[in-house]
User: What shape does this take?
Amino acid sequence: MRLVPLLLLAACVPMEHSFLEVRPGALYDVDVTVEPDPPVAGDLTLRMFVSDEGEPVPGCAVGVMAMMPEHGHGGMNDPVVTEEGDGDYAIAWKCPMAGHWEITADLDCPSGTDQVVIDLHVD
Assistant: This one.
């Protein structure tokens, strides 16, 4: 599943229905894929590629928070972020239940900070 998070992304969409939109005021472009596809409760990996005008942005500190807005609670455990090099970052997370999740990623990169919110619907 290929996604591009907006300030708030409307939904996780299959690759054949993917789209690219610009986040107003965003410093970086962030492409996201989710494994497994479609996402299911349990072990999930979100892969982010961070770029600036097409060039990879390595060296970002990425803070991640998972929230289930309709229930008003978080994910019970913290996602673990690993920098994989050349602007690629993996977010490993044990999703405790199906439903609508908002995954907020705060990017603190060498050339500035940014934030993306990934709207994730888990089966």
